[in-house]
Design brief:
Two copies of one chain form a homodimer. Chain A has four helices and four strands. Chain A is of the alpha+beta class. Chains A, B: Residues 1-22 form the signal peptide.
């Protein structure tokens, strides 16, 4: 009988260790959920969109256009105030694009963030990449409703 | 000594039950994480943005502008192909908005969705609300990168 209880004790101890491990896993998972929830909380109700549209000059080469796209797309990794970035080329069938072919939408969380971005050295350096490749640029910013 | 092992056995049994409970909690949490991930999976990798920008005529009244905004904002509840909608008024300090003051960004999940939207009776009815209130309209669509 004593040996049985000894065995049961060992079994109990093993189960206890397993329980501790499960608890640890659970804590890790709960931590991950909290992080996911935090990210959602950090996202404000309204976002400041900054929509930049280009019409390139007819003389601008495809290589130069690619260089501009790459340089623009590199800005979010350099300027932390840029909270979102997407871009694409116009494919509207409506023919109302006024010659604009390239769209870049940046997202800020505040007008202060935009105020840091606009004169930022890395943004200025991007302007230098643009050079005289652009025929027309239209920029509209808006707080999302 | 026997009583000690008995007590330890009972302790082990209690810990075992606690472990089972922890495992159940863990399973529930893992299930929740899977659900969160599933929601993300439903969102496609790339989205079709449809950006509509208006410059209203100087003669257009604020009431008419509000009517246009309300009619546009009502479209997502009428046309299921519209998967996202946001709008706002230009507040860019750069002065490059080319007179455009109102921005509406619709999101589609496919070009088929957009092809249903464009000639949709409710979209046509919105066009009738616009009437002759608009001085200029610019539309750019792009698949997000």
């Amino acid at each position: 009988m004593k040996r049985l209880y000894q065995k049961l004790f060992i079994l109990g101890a093993v189960l206890c260790m397993s329980a501790c491990e499960a608890k640890n896993d659970e804590e890790k998972i709960v931590e991950e959920i909290k992080e996911i929830e935090m990210e959602e909380v950090v996202q404000p109700d309204s976002l400041l969109r900054h929509v930049v549209m280009f019409k390139f000059k007819d003389s601008t080469s495809p290589e130069k256009i690619q260089e501009v796209v790459d340089a623009f797309a590199a800005l979010p990794s350099k300027i932390e105030q840029i909270k979102g970035f997407e871009w694409g080329t116009n494919n509207s069938p409506e023919g109302l694009n006024d010659g604009l072919t390239h769209v870049f939408t940046l997202t800020f969380h505040s007008e202060e963030g935009r105020a840091i971005y606009l004169p930022h050295p890395d943004h200025k350096a991007f302007g230098a990449v643009l050079g005289d490749s652009i025929d027309k640029v239209v920029v509209v910013d808006y707080w999302t409703h």
